[in-house]
Amino acid sequence: xxLAAIMGLLLGGAAQGEAASYTFTKIxxxxxxxxxxxxxxxNDRGAVAFSAALDTGxxxxxxxxxxxxxTIADSSGPFNFFGTPSFNDSANVAxxxxxxxxxxxxxxxNGPTTIASTSTPALLGNPSINDGGVVAFRLDGTGxxxxxxxxxxxxTIADSSGPFSRFLDNPSIADGxxxxxxxxxxxxxxxxxxxxxxxxTIAxxxxxxxGLGFPSLSTGxxxxxxxxxxxxxxxxxxxxxxxxxTITxxxxxxxxxxxxxxxxxxxxxxxxxxxxxxxSGIFTGPxxxxxxxxxxxDPLAGSTVTELIFGREGLNNAGQVAFxxxxxxxxxxxxxxxxxxxxxxxTIDITPGGNPNSINLRSKGTVAVAILSxxxxxxxxxxxxxxxxxxxxxxxxxNGAPMAAYEDVNGDGRVDLVVxxxxxxLKLDASATEAVVKGQTSDGTVFTGSDAVRIVP
Length: 457
Prior knowledge:
2 domains, 48% strand, 5-stranded antiparallel sheet
């Protein structure tokens, strides 16, 4: 993309406002059994994987959700050092380890399974795991390249037999098996994506970038990355190889930008940044007020933040953010930031086809309600187990499944959702003239809708 086009996207003057009000959950901190907690990653279930040292002197990889903490591996076994963990939705962790017997390996927690190993520790880099359990990793030395493996079959994504002469650490893998990686070729350094067959150039130092950071790949194929520009300054960008978008740039209120932004499946990006006005924080856009997740000086866990650490797997599809914070009380911990639920209005039809929508509260049957697709809202994404009508949950079948069906109710060619709730569960009285539906989509978006009702004796 031409430099002028990229610079035209820079956002230096967004309107001021208040940041979204995140809530924070402590996953683990050094007031407990841990003495050091390092960088963390989060999966779509809101669980966090992190590396840490214990008061006992052991080191290890752990996961937690704010209630329970699980030890994935520690140095009491065959490992004596752990790299940066990568965490998937099946709660499997992939991590580089150094071995007591010498050398290093990439291991996956289920099994556990050895993905790759070498006698020279520096030849393997930090891995990335997708939800299918496939792990991407860099191997240097003879036969160097970027590879993926499920523990049985290894696939070459790119190697030195092609146009690449050197591969840098930290590839990123998506659920379909495509990998984003940083490599050098005859023209400079670039970020590329490949599935082992087709390779796409995402960004390159042949122009307009003079330097590139580690990539983060979304399931939709977009890559988020840090870059310096030939024209000066630094930015956070996304690209699919055709269209490049500027998320933010140091021509605005940010002075420095972390070189490992994180992108989720919805294309949202989070990153660490320092500010011209002083301080630093984690943000999701160019406005340090409205796009702030948390910043130095903010209250957290009964204390105040003095330092924040954020990695490229720190953002999940629900918009939750995992980070490490140091506080004025001397503790260091890993935390999860939960965004406020966004609520959208949807169209519903109680007793579809009925006019008026009559309800007999003494009935021992059910009331049907259709949640209709309209505009950008797709009713096929609704999780029926979250739906309520006038406070009544969706009835269950004998097998435990919700009484729900996806069908085109209004004949517009789009799929709608019809659910059934128990009439006697409705929180309505004889004077009610309206009933409200509430629920969530599969990505956590909260919705509400209402329709007129007539209560009959």
